[in-house]
Amino acid sequence: MLGKSFFRSGTSDSSNSTPSNGGKLPRILSFLLRLSQLCLSLATITIYAPYLTRAHSAHVYYDTRWFYAVVVSSLTILTCLILIGIMSLNSFRSSVIPIHVRPLMIWDYLLALLWVVVTGIFGTMYGKEKPEGDKRIVQMKNAVWVDLALFLLFLGSAAWATIRVLKHRREERWGKSEV
Asked: What's the angle, vertex CA 89, arms to CA 10 and CA 92, rounded to 5?
């Protein structure tokens, strides 16, 4: 077997595949982490996409900041849907679809970087703004907090994958009984 899923345990013969995850709790936490990333990214796309729709209706150029935020949200949604789908399939099937941790770890770090850029862009724009009754400014200030939460969630999932990779590497090098 080339690897194992988040929902299966055992040993693997490839250093690039999912290391043993030690039970149901890590699998449930991984599932909940991806589900929360999915929900928050759906929230951000519903905040940023109307600005693009308004620009399209007015026949003006799209503001690249909002376009960038929608692209990052879309990438996040796609990633979460694929991973949640794989985790769900693996929990109900006898065969396992492998999830390779090292590429996923790199992708999580990349998405964390993209989210910190989104947070920086909109935090700079709306961080010091006084709403003074303007609902759009209040909405964008709240969106910055959601962006920050997504950055922290992806940083956490990347750190979790890093720990798993390092633990697996140590087990391969020194043997499971000595770790």
From this structure: 75
